[in-house]
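Quick entry, no commentary yet.
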Amino acid sequence: MSTVKLEINENIAQITINRAEKRNALTQEMWQKLADYCDELTQAKACKLLIIKAAGNKAFSAGADIEELTEIIKDEQRLVANNEIVQQAQLKLQKLSIPTIAAINGVCVGGGMGIALCCDFRLSVDSAKFAITPSKLGLLYSVEDTKRLVELVGLARAKEMLYLGKTITAQQAEQWGLINLLVSNETELSESVIKLSQQILAVSSYSIAGMKSTLAFINGADLAHETEIRALFNQAFSNNDFIEGANAFLEKRAPEFT
């Protein structure tokens, strides 16, 4: 059974995160598959829309696969390589010329949030919860991920989520601008995705692609000292706080940062 599936029906592509029994936790292989599918869709000229959904009814994605992560964080080089695959997959998803919809059916944290932030539209059930938690591990959030978050919720809300690693409800996420539409259940979620898809397919795909490129350009101003910021992100993987955070994770205890 494939843990990430791509289906193309005429001009609509659908990627399904398919590990419901593991709350759709993401492995390195799954991130690579997502990147490969984005490459495939870049070449699929007939596709006019991508929908990303998840199997089951509890989680869009609960984040990294715990069993795999337990091994990865023991090896700094492997950890950095894994992070590069994650960032590349997200960047490829963000840069797709076709509009993208995330259908969020439950918990959306860690890598799940990363995927959702890369999509153009986010529709969610009202029972979903959202969180970004690198501060609880002594890590940073990447430049790209941070920028996506700030663009959606603003600087003040981004600080609240990033500094505190707090979990917010779907209702809060909608109020903050993280979610485009909130619905009551999975049936309504599917219906709403279909309705939005029909609206997208009714307008010019050429116009959407051009507007998407224009918006990316407008929001793509270089950050001051970007090289230094990126270096800080990479250095975090070898700092003492991450060593403590990783050990606390492995030992299933609260970290004691200095």
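second:
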Amino acid sequence: MKDEKGILFILSGPSGVGKGTVRKALFERDPDLAYSISVTTRQAREGEQNGVDYFFKTKDEVKKMIEQGEFIEYAEYVGNYYGTPKAYVEQTLEEGRDVFLEIEVQGALQVKENFPEGVFIFLFPPSLEELKNRIISRGTETEDLVRNRLLEAKKEIEMMDAYDYVVVNDDVHNAVDRIESIVVSEHCKRERIASQYKKALGSVEL
């Protein structure tokens, strides 16, 4: 059933939960998945590359993109903009490839309005204490920023009801196993493939 359109998967959760690490491990296992790179105005962290991890833009550039309606979603988060380019996502889904968005919770809720057929996965920390330790261990955040991120994380966890699935990131390999199971499950859903099978049955002579 190669006519099947790709599925948009949204991987989201509080800052510091390990979204990037899990997404990279998932893509190492399944290189056929397509990753939609986000645009951001924050500074690149050590080892991050423009056009690979993010498209790094200035605030003026992003404001112009917002005005021109070039995002599926965008959000201002801890003083920086993040956004998902629209054209790439739509084209890739039409080609029959699954697209993964790795975005903040605010952005995920916007995508839910624009793409309600998307599959929303909330990556959950084993505990808030563990989340705090992960943010601190980055070594890139000031004490005030750590506190702000934790306050934001508490608010974001309260929005979990908007998601289809919750995956606890207690171990990266376990988290990837669970996400792979979700992908397979979604492709087997009756409503996604019923029309294709009915079309095939209609062409069969009895």
